[in-house]
Structure formats: C-alpha cells, structure tokens
Amino acid sequence: MVDILHRVGAVAPLEEVYRAVATPEGIAGWWTTETSGASEVGGKLVFRFGEVGGFDMEIRELDPRGRVRWRVTDGPAEWIGTEVDWRLEQRGEWTIVQFKHEGWREPVEFMNHCSTKWATFLISLKDYVETGHGRPAPDDVKISDWH
Amino acid sequence: MVDILHRVGAVAPLEEVYRAVATPEGIAGWWTTETSGASEVGGKLVFRFGEVGGFDMEIRELDPRGRVRWRVTDGPAEWIGTEVDWRLEQRGEWTIVQFKHEGWREPVEFMNHCSTKWATFLISLKDYVETGHGRPAPDDVKISDWH
Fold it and tell me: Is A55 exposed, middle or buried (0-12, 13-18, 19+ CB in 10 A)?
C-alpha cells in the first residue's frame, strides 16, 4: 500500500477550514464546482469533473475538532477502496492541514499524477479559505496531458 | 522507506526540460535562484534558500535521453541520504516528468510539507520551460507557516 501525503497551512480559523472540507458547499469552492451530497457520517458525496468523470465517496468520519475521512466507493479503478483523510490543527493564526490519500495498491503513474494534482487543489483550498476564491474544476490548474 | 512521487507534463521538447533539471542555470529558473555547482556525474550541486538554509547534492546520473539523479549529502537531517530521481519522456508534444524523492526514513510531517512544496516547484518547472518564467525561491509559492 502506498499513500499520497501533503501538508498545507492557511491563515484562517479551524472552523472555516473544517467547513471547507466537511460540506459539499465548502468543497465546491476549491475542488470541483460539481460537488453534491450529504454532510453526515455514512452519507455519500458525489464529485464530478465534467466529461472526465469523477468520484463517489462515503463519509467515514466527521469531527468538527478537525477530522474528516472519506472512502472512495466509485470512480477510477485505482481509487476504489482508497481513503482520503483530513486532520486539521490550529496553531496560532494558522490552521494546518495534514492530508492523506491512502491505500493505493501500487505507485502507478496515475497515482503520481494524482499526488501533484492534489497539491494544486490543497493550495486552492488554502486560497479559498483565506480569500474566498479557490480554483475548483473546471477552473483548476492543468498540470499535464492528463489534466 | 517512503517516497514522494509526482508527475507533471510540459509542452516543450525533452532537451529543454532536461537542461532545466540537469544544469545549475536551468534549476535556478524554477527551484532557487541560489543554485550553483557542476553539471557532471559526481559533481556537487549547492542549493540555497536565503536564511532558511538549503541542500547539497551529488549528481549520481545524467543522461540526456531523460534521466537525472541526485543524492542529498547535506541539509536537514531528514533529507540526508535521500535521492531525487527524474525521468523524462517525450510523448507527442509533451515531455512527461516522473519525479521521485525517495528514501525517507519515515513519513514525518516535514516530508508531507516537502511533498506539497515539490509539487509547487514542479509547476514552476513546467512554467519555466513553457514560458521562460518559473517561480524559483525567493519568489516561490508559500504554502504554510513552514514556507
């Protein structure tokens, strides 16, 4: 098993960062505008990226103290069964985001792409909570021939 | 051992991307302007980031067909002994960059920071070879309280 790991920080209260990763409205501000679903444990989140497809995830954990966890239930074969884990921690004026997309079976080229792409979305998340403006798809940063 | 893995693509000839990762002049265009050293196997590259410090690396491999490898010989304790591996491949108008920073002893928080930070520098590399303008330090993207 291999994991994608990242860390960003935003000058924003933990509650705001939590809202941005725990609710469909928040996620739509930095990952993809086509986000819908229910913000509750066991609820389903649906993420779409126009014609490219997307992901369905089940919410496994929601803790306003700074913990969110999703499990991928539909999407590209490599993603199914992987989990996305968020840990938020307030440190002074910063909220630190520890991000993990874990349980990849192999470090395939597509995983490397997703690692870089996640970084761009985490910076989008940072910008969203700091300024109100992220770069969710379809306005996301294109990093290669794979988007 | 844990690895940082990324993948970006640039619309540029492989030779240009190779030059950007194989020579101090190229690296200064996207990673840090304070880059010096000799572009030869066994040669030493010195990367500095103002007062923050920096890294010394030994070049282990240089192959204009698309392979570069460095070994970290000085810098933060977590970096020493790790290796940075570049594989470039031309695919049509794209040059695909497979990046690996391998041999981390543990997935510590600092590694997660470096993972995200490398992504921003890889996009800086992409911009540099595509447009002539990257964002090397000290003009790099600040991603958190750790820079």
Answer: buried
